[in-house]
């Protein structure tokens, strides 16, 4: 089967099936879809009420009969049926609702997922009407999407901070020399903020509010100018709606532990790679990608902790799907980097 044939009529897709967001790249069109990985299901008839952005609006606001489900947890499928419905919806939406399309698909997966988890991703894609499915490690796809020269005989280090997992890899000659996937990423930061606000201010906040606080005030090192933000939630003891004011310093305290774990994972990686590749990484530095790369001062914190140059990918949110998308038109590269399910 050749990806190069009939490219004019190709329906091939690359999918970054993320814990927080799913991105879809259509060959010849670029990124056509970027929506939250959420499905709203009616428990009475098991029908899908909404998927993606529409379903995210329902988080924490649904009646008893509708449940908003995140099919992905820590980068792997937690709810097989919901994942299949979500994939089917996104594949159809990427093809303007054409029902007869059976695309060939490249999907990014975390580097340390098990054989069973890989099989679940592949089976979900086949049941969502894909004709052929290739799995690629997210770190490899992110490195390609970030423009790293992965086919050269030199070490390239990528740190992809997603929603459920952070993938760290050192790549040389189109192969992964070292890889590690830690289940500490954007969602863990959101949970840390929600737990901190509950502990310190007796206020319950939802995951959407925690994510907004992370984006507005979150940082891995002190900001140049202090900031504050009004946050609304429900008081734990009094049970009434309450508003508090959070500072960036408080949010930094809340994020201290997940960021420490991320930094430690990067340092562990640097200790485990072969000496020759260490020299390359010293020269080239570390490339950051994924939504977590956008956390304020994350690059600066890693620069201080490792003593290495750190840069952020041009489009960190789309690095994985752009890298997977490039493989749609380079079957030789895909064959070299895809992993067996």
In short:
With 341 residues, this protein is α+β, with helices and mostly antiparallel strands. The chain has three domains: 155 residues, ATPase, nucleotide binding domain (Nucleotidyltransferase, domain 5); 96 residues, Nucleotidyltransferase, domain 5; 68 residues, Actin, Chain A, domain 4 (Alpha-Beta Complex), CATH 3.90.640. 47% of the residues are buried.
What is the CATH third-level topology name of the largest domain? Nucleotidyltransferase, domain 5
Strand order of the largest sheet: 3-2-1-9-10-19
The top-level CATH class of the largest domain is Alpha Beta
Give the amount of beta strand, in percent.
Answer: 25-35%
Rounded to the nearest angstrom, the radius of gyration is 21 Å
Q: What structural category do the secondary elements indicate?
A: alpha+beta
Helical percentage: 25-40%
What do you see in this structure?
The protein is α+β, with helices and mostly antiparallel strands. It has helices at residues 53-56, 80-94, 115-127, 138-145, 186-201, 207-217, 248-272, 275-284, 298-306, 319-327, 331-337, and strands spanning 13-17, 21-26, 30-36, 39-42, 47-51, 66-69, 72-73, 76-77, 104-109, 132-137, 156-161, 166-172, 175-182, 203-204, 228-235, 241-247, 286-289, 310-312, 338-339. It folds into three domains: 7-140 and 319-339, ATPase, nucleotide binding domain (Nucleotidyltransferase, domain 5), CATH 3.30.420; 149-184 and 255-314, Nucleotidyltransferase, domain 5 (2-Layer Sandwich); 187-254, ATPase, substrate binding domain, subdomain 4 (Actin, Chain A, domain 4, Alpha-Beta Complex). It has eleven helices and 19 strands. Strand 17, helix 9 and strand 18 form a beta-alpha-beta unit. The two termini are 18 Å apart. The relative contact order is 0.16. Residues 1-9 have low confidence and may be disordered.
């Amino acid at each position: 089967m050749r990806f190069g044939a009939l490219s004019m009529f190709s329906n091939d897709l690359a999918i970054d099936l993320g814990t927080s967001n799913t991105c879809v790249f259509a060959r010849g069109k670029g990124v056509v879809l970027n929506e939250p990985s959420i499905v709203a299901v009616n428990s009475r008839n098991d029908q899908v009420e909404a998927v993606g952005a529409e379903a995210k609006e329902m988080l924490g606001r649904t009646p008893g009969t509708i449940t908003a489900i995140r099919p992905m947890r820590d980068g792997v499928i937690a709810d097989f049926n919901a994942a299949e419905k979500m994939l089917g919806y996104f594949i159809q939406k990427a093809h303007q609702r054409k029902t007869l399309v059976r695309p060939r698909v490249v999907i990014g997966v975390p580097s340390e997922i098990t054989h069973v988890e890989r099989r679940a991703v592949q089976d979900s894609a086949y049941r969502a009407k894909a004709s052929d499915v290739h799995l690629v490690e997210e770190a490899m796809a992110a490195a390609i999407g970030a423009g790293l020269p992965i086919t050269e005989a030199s070490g390239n280090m990528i740190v992809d901070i997603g929603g459920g997992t952070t993938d760290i890899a050192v790549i040389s000659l189109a192969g992964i020399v070292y890889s590690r996937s830690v289940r500490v990423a954007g969602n863990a930061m959101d949970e840390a903020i929600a737990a901190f606000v509950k502990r310190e201010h007796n206020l319950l906040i939802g995951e959407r509010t925690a994510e907004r606080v992370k984006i507005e005030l979150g940082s891995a090192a002190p900001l140049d100018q202090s900031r504050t933000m009004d946050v609304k939630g429900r008081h734990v003891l009094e049970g009434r709606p309450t508003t508090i004011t959070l500072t960036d310093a408080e949010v930094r305290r809340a994020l201290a532990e997940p960021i420490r774990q991320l930094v430690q994972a990067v340092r562990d990686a640097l200790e485990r790679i072969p000496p020759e590749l260490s020299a390359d990484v010293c020269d080239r530095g570390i490339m950051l990608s994924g939504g977590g790369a956008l956390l304020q001062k994350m690059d600066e914190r890693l620069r201080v902790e490792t003593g290495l140059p750190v840069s952020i990918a041009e489009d960190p949110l789309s690095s994985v799907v752009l890298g997977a998308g490039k493989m749609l038109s380079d079957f030789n590269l895909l064959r070299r980097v895809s992993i067996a399910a």
